[in-house]
Every structure is written in structure tokens, then in C-alpha cells.
Amino acid sequence: MTNDMTNMKKLGLKEIQQRELEIFKKFVEICEQYGIRYYLAGGTLLGAARHKGFIPWDDDIDVNMPREDYETLLSHADEIGASGDYRLVAGELGNLNYPFAKIYDLHTNIRKLYDDDDTERNLWIDIFPMDGLPDDEKKVEDIFRRTLTARKMLRLKMARSGEGKTALKKALKPLIKMLLRPIDDQKLLDYIINTCQTYKIDDCSYMGGIANGYGPQERVPKKPYLKPVMMPFEDMTVSAPGCWDYYLKNLYGDYMQLPPEDKRETHSMDVWAE
């Protein structure tokens, strides 16, 4: 699909959510067909627990997968893309500037306000690999510090010049992008992916989403996490981590309490569909 908006309709939030739900159904179909484990993650899990579906103002779907299952999913990229309706992309496949995967709806186009990334032009769902994490909290902090720093650098390289949430960010962005220009995008991405895999899940009592996570609070006990429970999400019943309450409290605290309206963030993007 091109960036030509001719014969395309701009979507509202509910329409965006419905398109994402259709991508998610395709993803779940593939997972069930091949016995691939997945678990609702982040705001999507929070939405399932609190709203039995999307958080009303949310505009994406997030899922976690153990690294082994994630790699199996990537092996089915051609099958997912066979119809021409969807496309699986990933940092590991060399067609996405993130250290994780997305499934795109190829009948959509997006424009993000703060990002300008040639590998991200369609509406998506996010698929995050999970890796092992050690018992030693200092080592956990170190691995997140290194990956978070590299991830921030990578996103700054993709930032849209002339835009920013504050006047200072808007002014500094061109300078930061210039300073980061000598750093190779692929080397930075490879560094993040390799660092995430420092510890294997089979060798650890803990695991977490390092490639996308906020920090050490992402660490969860492996055994209870991997025992899935089924939760309602819109018109579906889908897989969630067994320790979903522990996970949500780690990330959000009192997660059943609605945030104030000025904290209800979205991706600051426009979406069009055929």
C-alpha cells in the first residue's frame, strides 16, 4: 500500500479498535493452528481485566510471547502475508525498526505525529518476545538500563523533526538526531535484540518483556506466568498470564482505578483505511 490517501477514509477511535481486533483474530488463529503460546500484555491485559475489552481511549493491542514461541511465529511470516491483507514484520526479519514484531493491516495507512519511520506505515498489533531474567535484582536493573537506553536512541533517530510535546523537545530534536546520525540503525537494533537474549527462559525462574518493557517491574515469576487463564476481550476469549493480577499491579499499581483524563494517552496518530 502507498501513502496515497485517494479513496481512503479517516478512521475514528472505535473504527481503529475494530480494525485492530480483526488483526488480532488473524494472529490468534495462527497461534491456535500451530500451538504457539501468547499472553495479553500491557494496556490490552489491563483492558481485559477492567473493561473486558479495549481501554475506552486505547488505540493498540499488545501481546507477549516466550522467545521460543515468538521465533516460531516469525517462521510463519509468509503464511500470514499470503492473502495480501496482513503482513508480519519484525526487527529480526530486517523489516521493522523495533526489537519486536508487528502484524500490519495492509488496507490502512497511518501518520504518527512524533515519529517518521519508513517501516511503520500501517495499523498494527504489537507482539513482544519474553526472555529469561536472573534472580539478582542488580543484574535485572542493568539489562533494562542498557536496553532502555539503546531503545531510546533508536526511537530518537526515527523522530519526526519539527514536532515535540514541549517547545524544548521540539527545539532539541534536530540536534539530537544529528548527533545520533553516525550510529548505524541496524547495529543498534541488533544490540538490543542480542542483549534481550542474555538469559534463556529455561535457565531462569523469572522472565519478562525486555524488548518493550518499562523496566525491572516487568519481571514476573516464570511458572505462574506461563499457566494461561482465559479472559474476555471484546467478542473473543483469549489467553492471559496466570499471574495477571501480579503483573498488572507491578506495572500500574491500583489498576482498577481509572487514571485522570489528562493521563489517558494514545499514539498521537491519524489512521486511514480503504
Short description:
The protein has 274 residues and is α+β, with helices and mostly antiparallel strands.
Quickly give the CATH architecture of the domain at 9-131 and 208-273.
2-Layer Sandwich
Radius of gyration: 18 Å
Q: How confident overall, as mean pLDDT? A: 93
Low-pLDDT regions:
none
Helix/strand-derived category reads: alpha+beta
At the fold tier of CATH, the topology name of the domain at 9-131 and 208-273 is Beta Polymerase, domain 2
Please name the defining characteristics of this protein.
274 residues, 7-stranded mixed beta sheet, 20% strand, Beta Polymerase, domain 2, alpha+beta, 9 helices, single chain
Q: Would you give an account of this structure?
A:
The chain has 274 residues and is an alpha+beta fold. The protein contains nine helices and twelve strands. The chain has helices spanning 13-34, 42-51, 67-74, 77-80, 137-157, 167-180, 185-196, 222-226, 244-252, and strands spanning 9-10, 39-40, 62-66, 86-90, 101-105, 108-112, 123-133, 206-208, 220-221, 229-233, 236-240, 269-273. Strands 2, 3, 4, 5, 7, 8 and 9 form a seven-stranded mixed beta sheet that branches. Helix 5 packs antiparallel against helix 7 (185-196). The radius of gyration is 18 Å and the shape is globular. It starts with 8 loop residues before the first strand and ends with a strand.
